[in-house]
TrEMBL record:
Keywords annotated in UniProt: ATP-binding, Nucleotide-binding
Domain Fido, chain residue ranges per copy: 1-103
Active-site residues (renumbered): 34
Lineage: Bacteria, Bacillati, Bacillota, Clostridia, Candidatus Gallimonas
GO MF annotation: an example: ATP binding
Binding site for ATP: 38-45, 76-77
UniProt-recorded name of the protein: Fic family protein
InterPro entries to which the protein is assigned, alphabetical: Fido (IPR003812), Fido-like_dom_sf (IPR036597), Fido_containing (IPR040198), WH-like_DNA-bd_sf (IPR036388)
Keyword Repressor: no
Amino acid sequence: MEEICRQFRLALGAGEVDPLLLIPVFIHDFLCIHPFSDGNGRMSRLLTTLLLYQNGYMVGKYISLEAKIANSKELYYDSLAAAQHGWREGQEDAVPFIKYLLSTVIAAYRDFEERMELVSDKLPALETVRKAVQARLGKFTKAEILGLCPSLSASSVEASLRKLAANGELVKQGAGRSTVYSRVN
């Protein structure tokens, strides 16, 4: 671990390779070394967020990278397995994992951009929720809409979802915590 940390610091300090390429390589090596008996995956996601912060990429402050990775767990494990093959012999190809992690960061920035569009429009609650709903595919929960509308209270989102369902724009299924919505059109 000391050696990969030293190499990472040297590479960052040299400034010849962009941190967005160095971070996934460091995380890949960390996961190959597997320094702890448990919790290596979670630690790698915390390290990813920390290293992104330290290098000026603040998206993890607003969008959970851990949740994005959890939502694409199969891709995560597939890319990691492909990248780890031959690591002990020095024959690995980290590119699949680099591509995966960079696509996750890009997706987080896209989500952040969508949220900021909703917030910056200063629309009434109903219109803000309507816009958030239009950005969703398939079924979604009130919590997901709340995440897209951080400027609104839970009661405003709930009232807006009720109105949209009453207007026939949404279909409500279930009750209480198991309630899900879907768009009509």
